[in-house]
Amino acid sequence: MRDYNTRVVVLGVAMLGGSSGLVGSFTLLRRRALMGDALSHASLPGIALAFMLATTLGYDGKYLPLLLAGATFSGLLGVGCILWIRNKTRLKEDTALGIVLSVFFGAGVALLGMVQQMKTGNAAGLEGFIYGKTASMSAMDVRLIFYASLIAIALSFANFKELKLLCFDEGFAGSRGYPVVLLDVLLMSLVVLVAMVGLQAVGLILMIALLVIPAAAARFWTDTLWKMTAYSVILGTVGCVIGAMVSAVFPNLPSGAMIVLVCSFFFFLSMFFGTARGVVARFLRRRRLNRRIDRQHLMRAMYEQIEHPDRSDTSALKPGSEPVRKTKVSIDELLLVRSWNWKRLMAAIRSAEVDELMQYRHGHAQLTHAGFIEAARLTRQHRLWEMYLITYADVAPALVDRDADNIEHVLEPHVIDRLEDLLEEQELLFPVPTSPHELGDGLTSSEEGILP
Amino acid sequence: MNQTENVNQVSPLSVDDLTVAYHRKPVIWDVAFDLPEGQLIGVVGPNGAGKSTLLKAIMDLIPRASGRVRVFGDTYRNNRHRVGYVPQRESVDWQFPVNALDVVTMGLYDEIGWCLPVRRKHRQRAMEALDRVGIADLAQRQISQLSGGQQQRTFLARALVQDADLYLMDEPFAAVDAATELAIVDILRELKKRKKTAVVIHHDLQTVPDYFDHVVLLNMRIVACGPVETTFTAENLNKTYGGRLTLLDEVNEAMRRRETSL
């Protein structure tokens, strides 16, 4: 880091990582990520040809702007070929992409071989474009990267909301009069800008990684677009800086490969531990949901056991006996009503105990007052949904939205009214007592509070 | 296609001789109609009848092979600001990292202008639109966590926030819950009260007479178009849905064969 040149290079690749992270977020969401790959691969023949042309005309063949102009030209030609093949033949885009990418790259490698044989000019270092070689970058090259990245970042920020609309809903964008094609061209130009200046640092084979990996990794952390782009910029920058520094310390390690490895390390970290969509977060969410369902099943099973005719009859007959809600239910009875195993049932009981909905002693469970209200509410809700499904069988399945916390939020009051009438007419279960009804209604919005 | 009663007014949407073809395969043929102002208009027809295509062609989203579209007597381009569009819910990726409020705000982007940020007053208006469709409390929720009905309401709010005069809606009732269906119907009636026109692609034939005043029966061509009472008849429906497997399909099949053999 003490070396001036290294510092300049690190600054350059940092800008590159940031801008490609930003542009990459949009291409990822627009599902155009592979276009960047085609573009960078197709740039190789342009580099070789530009070098050949310049040296035969007697200029410096390794003048960077010239090489990049050649790269841009042939890269765009490649993308144009892909679009042409897709539109004019019945081949799909992925096929067109595969053909163009490999043909252009192959042509590039062949041309590079010819360049190596040339008498004039020193072609050494051109292969740095393939794998990336930050060590061969001059301060002027870095300046080029710096300004190009700055332009890409500025353009993305200025048109942030337009690009967001394009990526989310191009049909709507078109209906509002946005030039969708022009916006796509803008996005593609940003990719060109970033990919071309990135060729030297990362190399054309691995350039795609910088456009895809930071953005994909960022997606695991957030569900907000501006945060996703911000994280993507940070990941891209840090990945590039670390990668370039490692490559500077060990000159035999190409910088492109190092940058990609560092970025993919971040990616795997994000994939597992990302707070929004990471594997671990999803697993935990899934488990929480299962537990919540178990809890609901348990509460309903308790309620149904309590209201069971045999039990309620006997308890009603004995004056002075405990109120109905305090009926003890043995764990064996609970085990019979559902297909759960002992372990799962016990886990549900324990968690209900923690929330003071239930007490468990000597193999018997007993609802607390709050637990009884909750159980009555859940049972009522469940039965109303069932009744809804039965009554409106023709339309119901598509319309039922049980994810909505409460039936009241989904169905109109008069529908619920009618369902409750139906429920009372039905005599196979004795109706849910009236008091929990009202109490339950009062509690409806706090379901999340009671059930973690 | 008896529209003589509306000749004095400028029709909010008038289509002449509209033909659209994808890859040389015609999707809608010679479509022509004039729609009355301030009414709720249902567009009905079987799958693949070209209903969405019709809406997209009206809005210049897809190229037309021929035809002329007039929106309030001018081109769509010039009267774009008076039209609100509700695309099909399946047309977008609901995993996209935005929340409901963001989506509704998109309806105001062209008003905000290029390169300018969304300001508080725009967010305020988007909130009001969300409130109108009854999901203001879900404004900050990521769109993948909304139910189908709530997603549809979000789309509706995005069109409402523009305060247009003509609304084009592509299957707003498809796979929504009962409460959402009622909420959408309420909004349609409120629009009508305010003399707005809504053109709605609809699938459920049973509810057409309840929801709409005017109906367009479409099956690649216009089968019938007019007030629901006189147009939405068994005979016309039979022509729309019953004839599907015969002539038009055969012609299409022949076209397709010819194309593949080329």
H-E order of chain A: HHHHHHHHHHHHHHHEHHEEHHHHHH
Mean pLDDT of chain A: 81
Radius of gyration of chain A: 33 Å
Shape of chain A: elongated
Radius of gyration of chain B: 19 Å
Helix content of chain B: 25-40%
| Uncertain stretches of chain B | 1-7
Q: Quickly give the CATH architecture of chain B.
A: 3-Layer(aba) Sandwich
Instruction: Count structural domains of chain B.
Output: 1
- The CATH H-level homologous superfamily of chain B: P-loop containing nucleotide triphosphate hydrolases
Briefly, what is this?
The complex is a heterodimer of chains A (452) and B (262). Chain A has 452 residues and is an all-alpha fold. Chain A is built from 23 helices and 3 strands.
Salient structural properties:
heterodimer; A: 452 residues; mainly alpha; ABC transporter involved in vitamin B12 uptake, BtuC; Arc Repressor Mutant, subunit A; 3-stranded antiparallel sheet; 23 helices; 3 strands; 2% strand; disordered C terminus; B: 262 residues; alpha/beta; Rossmann fold; 6-stranded mixed sheet; 9 strands; 22% strand
